[in-house]
Amino acid sequence: MSKKDVVAMLLAGGQGSRLGALTASVAKPAVSFGGKYRIIDFSLSNCINSGIDTVGVLTQYRPMMLNSYIGTGAAWDLNETGGGVHILPPYLRQGGGEWYTGTANAIFQNLDFISSYDPEYVLILSGDHIYTMDYDKMLKFHIENKADVTISVREVPWEEAHRFGILSAAEDGRITKFSEKPQEPESNLASMGIYIFNARLLETALTEDDSDPNSSKDFGGDVIPRLLNEGKSLYAYKFSGYWKDVGTIESYYVANMELLQEDPPFNIFDWRVRILSNSNIYPPQYIWPEASVDNSLICNGSSVRGKVINSILSPNVRIGEGCTIIDSIILPETRIERGCRLQKAIVGENTLIRRDCMLGAPSTGGHPAQQGITVVADNMILAENSVIVEGENVNYA
Q1: Using one digit for the tens of pLDDT, what is the confidence trace for 192-216?
Q2: pLDDT tens digit sequence for 17-61
Q3: Cβ–Cβ < 8 Å for 287, 308
Q4: DSSP tag of 194
Q5: pLDDT tens digit sequence for 245-276
Q6: Which of 126, 112, 118 is nearest to 207 (CA)?
Q7: Residue partners of 63: CB distance under 8 A and separation at least 6
Q8: In sequence order, what DSSP letters do the residues of 38-75 get, joined into one string?
């Protein structure tokens, strides 16, 4: 293999259980976002936009969709000889094998892949966040500070801090304390799950972690605190751009709906930043004469005969005559027959909603779950005249 200065390792094997019905049949990084994209598009696009042309994608949970979607990596210009994108599932070795048992263990099991490129640095990413970032700037920060490890961080609302790895840092950025998902956070400076390691240190740290029977094999829970306790040079790289963890139904819904704002916090139409995707080639959208569309994203291949308000229609979605779709997200290849009404709903891929259904019907039992967002899983068929109350998840038993 040709030597690479940087190799990226993208963790994409998570189930994303907090997304409920949306990840019943696909891994979280493969979930559709913003109409034409999938969540993993943002990390892959960031890599090639930052000049990183060698990426290992670590898959595990329900990988078929993700494997098929990534393919050769050509959609992201990651198909060059001597680099490109590589799918890295768990595999058998002499003496057996095992599933990835944590983020650190997943990278440990692929140290051979990393060493085959003999990199100076390893960039470790999560495949389930929405953001654009120049990793080259973070690498320069890492080199200038002679860091062993650099962690990308940003401030989060205090009420959400317990969901993240939380750290404290000196004025020069050197990390002084790190706590993984503390119940009582001392800071709101959160790890974004983006790390740059010196490659030799990474190999040593992961080998030691693997031999520790008390380790949970996790970067935030084990590897980072151990290196900090050993006096290694860990630095915090402060990121000020848009970044959203879409690991819950509520955060996923909000991040999508923000795209429809007049001045969105994350602008997918910004020509200065390429967000690449492997979206299928469809004919143009068609809005029928009787249709009405207001403040919505309508992707190619879609056909609208009803009313669509403040909603996102992914590729090849069919909206029947007399339908009303309000504040909703319809994922690819879904068909909604005539007379249906959807309010604040997320409908999974390749789903058929028969005529005269209502999704998001008012609840009579107090505050609805998940902020009243109704979710239908992929590949479902809803019978005619079905009524789904706001906040419910419709999934196979």
Answers
A1: 999 999 999 999 999 999 999 999 9
A2: 788 889 988 889 999 999 999 999 999 999 999 999 999 999 988
A3: no
A4: E
A5: 898 999 999 999 999 999 999 999 988 888 99
A6: 112
A7: 13, 27, 87, 89
A8: ETHHHHHHHHHHTT--EEEEE--SS-HHHHHHHTTSGG
Q: What is the CA radius of gyration of the chain?
A: 22
Q: How many CA atoms lie within 13 A of 103 on its CB side?
A: 20
Q: What is the mean pLDDT of residues 56-68?
A: 90
pLDDT, tens only, 6-21: 999 999 977 767 888 8
394 vs 385: CA distance, rounded Å: 15
The sheet carrying 324-326 orders its strands as 292-294, 307-309, 324-326, 341-343, 358-361, 387-389
In sequence order, the 6+-apart residues with CB closer than 8 A to the CB of 208 are 226
Per the DSSP assignment, residues forming a β-bridge with 326 are 309, 343
Task: Enumerate the β-bridge partners of residue 179.
Answer: 166
Strand order in the sheet with 335-336: 286-287, 303-304, 318-319, 335-336, 352-353, 381-382
Residue 262 C-alpha from the chain's centroid: 24
Residue 94 has pLDDT above 70, yes or no: no
Helix spans in 145-292 (H): 199-210, 224-229, 249-258
Helices (H), the chain: 40-49, 64-70, 103-108, 111-115, 135-144, 199-210, 224-229, 249-258
Helices and strands, number each (H, E), in the chain: 8, 31
Count of alpha carbons within 13 Å of 9, Cβ hemisphere only? Answer: 28
**Could you give the percent of the chain with pLDDT greater than 70?**
97
Q: What percent of the chain has pLDDT over 90?
A: 78
Confidence category of residue 397, pLDDT binned at 50, 70, 90: low
Q: Write the CB contacts of 128 (distance below 8 Å, at least 6 apart in sequence).
A: 12, 14, 16, 28, 29, 39, 40, 245, 246, 247
Q: Please give the pLDDT value at position 350.
A: 96
Angle at the Cα of 118 from the Cα atoms of 150 and 107, rounded to 5 degrees? 55
Residue bearing tokens 């949306």? 22
